[in-house]
Fold:
Amino acid sequence: MDTVGAMLKSRVEKYGDRVMMKKKVEGAWEEFSWNEFYDNVHNLGLAMISMGIQPGDRIAIFSANSPEWQMTDMTAVSIGAVDVPLYATITPKQAEYIIKDSGSRIVFVGTEDHLNRVLQVKGNLPDLMKIVTLDNTASDNPYVLTFDQVLKMGEDYSDKGEFDRRLDAVKIDDLCSIVYTSGTTGPPKGVMTTHKNYMSNVSTVSTLIDISDTHDVLSFLPLSHSLERMSGYYGAVYNGCTISHAGSMDTLVDDIGEIKPHWMVSVPRLYEKVNAGVLANIESESPLKQKVFHWAVGVGRQVSQLQVAHKSIPAGLKFKHMIANKLVFSKIYEKMGGRLIFFVSGGAPLAKEIAEFFHAMGILILEGYGLTETSPVLTCNTPDSVRFGSVGKVIPEVEIKIAEDGEILAKGPNIMLGYWNKPTETAEALAGGWFHTGDIGEFDADGYLYITDRKKDLIVTAGGKNIAPQNIENQLKLDKYIEQVCVIGDKRKYLSALIVPNFEELEAWANKEGISYPDRMALVMNDRVNLFIRERIDEQLKEFDRHEGITKFTLLPQEMTEAGGFLTPTLKVKRKEVSRAFADDINKMYSG
Structure:
């Protein structure tokens, strides 16, 4: 079971007709057994072989999550080809760059919209032979085939044994995938990962966290994201779990209620929204219910602290916790499906306060750390060893050291081969035999790692102060009236911030205060609103050093989105794009 394809084959032999995957079709959950999934993989593989795909050829997938996405991925890596995942939300130009740079021979597209995006740039893609529509969108274009047509090609292929011969020939050190980074600081780089990279990570993490083949997993993050691919997909296959595909952020709460997952993977944005939603709901309740809730959370925090420290819970506190659970926590737990064992958080730092708040309510969030280049996990918290605010301890077989400038350096079987067609960048990233993460961090006395910031994001003020903006941003986002924050201040005299309010909460406050506003622009320009947000900022940052305070801020009238070019597909702020787009607003905060 050294390769990804061999892993799948062994699990199919074990689980056969059990349900492997579910997807929602017209409001109902459609199921795929392990055998059904593998039959499609087998036929897809034979079809690719019939089209001339050789070991090492690249196969791109430009689609949202679906069983067909995973069938295509498993097919490519099983026959020795190289999978190239694209985020479903990228533009035609971005898709062109990745498909062309990787030299992909076939691209599988999720919808007619994705098809049209590729067709727009097809003339600039000399290596591309075919486009396959996963949703069976038909086209008169001779380059386009439907998924069903390709499956039929595989069924009709005469040499059925060629699939297994290809699978058996794949070696552990063979290139498995080229995953393009989000590109927060420039054009995306193609990260070359091997079968060994993924399988070492999957097997190691599975020894640290108890996962059962009776577990249901909800797949929410894009499969193009390394954390979802390793944990919510390969990890789930490795452990024999059933994978269900969430529709979108809009349907997520309903999907959780229907699937009742035992665990799922997400980025901090989800937990921030749930946290804000719970607190907003409580503030709309009667004073008595608010009092009961805050009492329950206080009890939960006491229990949480004892559990994390592996200490026994006194009988009196245990009784209070039982009441708190019945009155408050059980209702929230039921909204999470009623079977949740843990959430996984990665991709960006999770505020310590949010992790503690969830655990006080009996919901464990396991935060880890890694990058696309590390396949991805380097460290993680586990149910038996958790320290909120940290990203956990170094996983077995991985080494980490902190460089003199604070940068985290890593070694291990999960470290990438390098960047596709970028020898200079590869040499820089792997200098001295260590992968240079670009993150700044430190260990505590017990071996838990703490990430303080991205090396490239560190702000050095005109006065020479080094400031980690993410710490400030995460603290401000704990306020229910603040939705998004981008802290500014590199080479400046003081820190400023661009802030997107939580408009639902802010509008409710403004209406209550009798503030009239014809639109959101008028709302964010209102003096009383700005004074109110000023008070919220100062309250949140009162424990921070003086030089970490926000001297000036600008409220933005609309959310920063991925579609607007301000967020990566994993919802991290593109600081350069934000600084460029709001240059006038930023300059005003430093004028005079």
